[in-house]
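Write out structure tokens for 8-oxo-dGTP diphosphatase.
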Amino acid sequence: MKSVLLPVVALAMIDSVGRVLMQQRPQAKEHGGLWEFPGGKPESGEGPRTALVREIAEELGVVVDPSQMFEITFASQESGPDQRAIVLLLYGCRNWEGEPQCLEPGARIAWVDRAAMLALPMPPLDVPLARALAPILDSVMK
């Protein structure tokens, strides 16, 4: 049986002092209670940036211009028993319109610095993304 590729997109929103916005998953969901970068799955026909614009608006109530996003890294997980191969694409952004609010029921958001981000309990695919983001946050602080 062939595996199905499941793309997932995430956004590291970085504020002016080098903090990043993290979102805690609702307890009732897979990886409940763990912290991740906000985002989600593209809908049929959506590219990664378009999906992120939609997901961030739905989850956080802010508007992100796709031209303001930059690629950071990706992480992948080969097929498990459900025959899904997940590829998680992390983009970064320093500018957006509006103040992020947690609109997803049961979720929480927090602005965290580099050290706090790396200490958060995260789903396995978010861990290498956070490690790749850390030097970018360091450069913002300088």
